[in-house]
Amino acid sequence: MKKQVFLIALLAFAAFSCSKKETPVEKESNTMLEEPKVTVEQQNAEVKVPTPESGLEFINASDCRTCHADDTKLIGPAYKDVAAKYENTEQNRKMLAEKIIKGGQGVWGEIPMAPHADLTQAQAEAMAMYVLSLKK
Fold first, then answer.
1. pLDDT tens digits, residue range 56-87?
2. Is 127 annotated as a binding residue?
3. How far apart are alpha carbons 6 and 104 in whole angstroms?
4. What's the confidence (pLDDT) of residue 50?
5. DSSP letter assigned to residue 33
6. Which of 1.20.120.140, 1.10.760.10, 1.10.10.10, 3.30.420.40 would CATH assign to domain 52-132?
7. Distance CA 9, CA 63 (A)
8. Which of 33, 37, 83, 86 could crosslink 92 through cysteines, CB 3.0-4.6 Å?
């Protein structure tokens, strides 16, 4: 009796171990078809002359749109509200650029703006130039 159980177990083991193993087929990824995400660091690391257009590119490549929109207050103020508050002067562009880089709190409420230390002064000034260009 023990021999029969042993032989059946041995035959079952041999049958299963010799069968073809199916490996899961990896699904093809579409990542090659997607456009690569452009980060702020990958964009023009040095901006020679800040422009509103380059500022918009940096805004869209950064996390700014999480808290700001052009026309609508989200977590932070709408860009048009910022433009209405400040004249488009070099002094104001530099001040806003510093707030973009270092972060800030209190001007538009108690929710702090996160610092963006990875930006250069020229990149932040281009971003401020875009925001201030929205003045009506």
1. 999 999 999 999 999 999 999 999 999 999 99
2. no
3. 77
4. 85
5. T
6. 1.10.760.10
7. 62
8. 86
